[in-house]
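As practice, study what follows.
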Amino acid sequence: MNLQALRDHRFATLKATYTDKDTMLYALSVGAGLDPLNEKDLGLVYEGKLSALPSMAAVLAHPGPWITQPQFAVNFVKLLHGEQNLRVHRPLPAQGELQANYKVTAVQDKGEGKGALVFFEKQLTDAKSNELLCTVSSTLFCRGDGGSGSFGTPPEALSPAPAGEMQPIGELKTDRRAALWYRLNGDRNPIHVDPRIAVKAGFKEPILHGLCTYGVVGYLIVRDVCGYDTSKLLTLDARFSSPVMPGESIRLDGQRTADGLFFQAVVPERNQVVMSQGFARIAA
């Protein structure tokens, strides 16, 4: 890893327009609309009274695979998406024009042979009003780049849930075509669609996008905790623990607090935790 290149890099501000079609596609790709007679679900997939899922901020104005650029010298074959964080400052409109600003906020070196964490941030503002809408943060685990050095101040670590058993809150069975749908939001990494490439990467078949699992969890929280009120979901933080295969179920387990929900996501068919140390702050 070229630490100096990461420290010095300045991303160009990106302007992006999204339509109600993009908002509906995103919701469909994370499982909304399975019951087309459910009027509340229709509010996420029908332009008549459309609301945007907050987790859609993760795909809007995405900068693409920027870390694979050669000047950063990152061993991207060994790169994993470690954590994802969202702060909603104002609810996303169902369609609009955005301005996106990006930066690498810190690099935390774990040591030679132990990898490094790269902390990346995207801020989305309304292009017309200049109001800050969302801050989206990602933690990238560069397993092959330990010993390259650190800079900046890493964010606080995710908090574990308090003692006590988590209870099932909601569940969704993903479509076998889920990755084919989700990739149309912008992430066309072939590991999610090409069986040969997935096998070369060590998987038996193409895996679901981590951010699709994140989106499913965000949808389940909106559906089963927020009562379909998308404005109530204020933050969404979680660690990716294991991949999901398209067609598997995703169950949301949680523990309510005064201001939110500690949660994890589980694939019940394998009793496998796929997202851990999750917390969502919920408006009253």
